[in-house]
Amino acid sequence: MSSPISYAGAGLALAAVVAGALVPFQAGSNAALGRALGHPLWATVASLLVSLLVVLPVIVAMRAPSPSLGQAGALPIWAWFGGVAGVIYITSALMLTPRLGATSFIVCIVAGQMITSLLIDHFGLMGLPVKEANLGRIGGVLTILAGMVMVQWSSTVR
């Protein structure tokens, strides 16, 4: 029987925490961009363009192979939802973060992510392996939801 926590797993979790730590900065910077550009959708476009300008040199530097467009056309329609979700997230972040504050916005985002992730894992959706929604996993998500309620209850909305 293997240990549930390994050095490799801890390293991956740390990388995910660091990536997650950047999300409030994204929300805040996109909100400022939205105010400066005069409309949230222009800020969304600007944010996505900056993302493209950042990733293209990384693709070149890593010598990533050309995309397999033939295989991409055979994907199920849900495989293209990531781009739609990105637009919804960015636009929501820049519209809601100034009103809710970074903490309230992000805790709601995390709660939504956890509920959906638990369901995706439990049912093996989107081609991912099944990971049962057992008592410990459900309890962890409920703890996050309780934290979300506590943060919201302790915050004032302008």
Notes on the protein architecture:
- The protein has one domain (7-153).
- 75% of the residues lie in helices and 0% in strands.
- The protein contains six helices and no strands.
- The model has no long low-confidence stretch (mean pLDDT 90).
Instruction: Please give the share of residues in helix.
Output: over 70%
Q: Specify the number of helices.
A: 6
Profile the largest sheet.
Answer: none
The amount of beta strand, in percent, is under 5%
Radius of gyration: 18 Å
Structural domain tally: 1
Low-confidence residue ranges:
none
- What is the distance, rounded to the nearest whole angstrom, between the alpha carbons of the first and last residues? 52 Å
